[in-house]
């Protein structure tokens, strides 16, 4: 679910965390397992040199954290090359084509959480079983379950997750007469997303001209749905999005936000959205962990210190986003690829990625490391994001993931944007969304 962390939300540039320093030895602490279900599947040149390819989308943070270079230092005979596609919606169709053809795949493939159920159900036999490489108990429990087939095969090792928070522009809040301290803001929205909209109405009364309370009602919709275990599918694998209480709540709140003019109606990560952040025309952005880097990049240096981060509305924890690393069985370097995946997703390396780009670890062992536990964002008034996100991550409900989650979310988000931008009536927008979804899921 990306935007569940959408690929478009993963810029190739990043905001840097302020933490206690990551020592050079920290990255060396995690060993690499030699276990694999295809131990003879290794290819090297005449000098014993191996090149491992990693195909991913958006920003996984490995290059920015210096991990590929570090892996080469640890294993001089191995060079890692990253092949990145900017948008996940372009990446995934190509991945399916390669899986169907059995060729063209990288040694390691990034897998989006919104696609993981479909891959587990239909393509598990084309991936190496990582349950023989990693210890799934190291991850938050629901993370690795998402990548586990009925027979126990694990097709992906968890990278990041997207525990929820709220990013807000303190300068705009102050001008509108709202509190700016993160604890005071949290108290104002403690009752849930309904309180969030009430705060939006307070903002609107005194807001500076041509400013809006939120960037996008579709972003709020995703956050509302993500805070529930039942979202678009039930435990039997049946699509329930038409009757899902979380979808209904998210849709109704989005329609209310659009009707009351609380949203600027900007699709996230597009040029207008980036321009609005630079010009400080929107006061809040729903913030899964990976979002902060996107805001700081788009808003630019002139807005540093004007933003802060507080807990998400209400008491229900939510996860929006996250990915996995999988190893195709058809690769020439399956065993070595498995070792690389194990190392990249170990606590020390996930902490390094968090420090470099703000992607929050799914490996629980990272939460007690200094670079996560005491992590702060200077851009966001030194918000203690390590503390905020770790607390959130511990209570995120185990959501039911369906094979077409990403497609359902995309169709609904498009129609919410139409309500915001074109004034489409909610009933007509819902009909258009369900018509599109029914065609996709069959």
Task: Provide an overview of this structure.
It is built from 17 helices and 9 strands. Residues 1-15 and 19-40 have low confidence and may be disordered. It is globular, with a radius of gyration of 21 Å. 40% of the residues lie in helices and 13% in strands. With 442 residues, the chain is an alpha/beta fold. Strands 1, 2, 3, 4, 5, 6, 7, 8 and 9 form a 9-stranded mixed beta sheet that branches. The longest helix has 18 residues, at 405-422.
* Biggest sheet details: 9 strands, mixed
What percent of residues are in strands?
A: 5-15%
Uncertain runs are 1-15, 19-40
The sequence of SSEs as H and E is EHEHEHHEHHHEHHHEHEEHHEHHHH
Question: Could you give the distance between the termini?
Answer: 20 Å
Number of strands: 9
Present the secondary structure layout:
Elements: E1 50-57, H1 67-74, E2 78-85, H2 88-101, E3 108-112, H3 113-122, H4 141-146, E4 157-169, H5 170-175, H6 182-188, H7 193-206, E5 212-214, H8 217-226, H9 245-259, H10 271-279, E6 282-288, H11 291-299, E7 307-311, E8 319-326, H12 334-344, H13 347-357, E9 360-361, H14 370-373, H15 385-393, H16 405-422, H17 426-441
Parallel strand pairs: 1-2, 1-3, 5-6
Antiparallel strand pairs: 3-8, 4-6, 4-7, 4-8, 4-9
Helix pairs in contact: 8-9, 8-16, 16-17
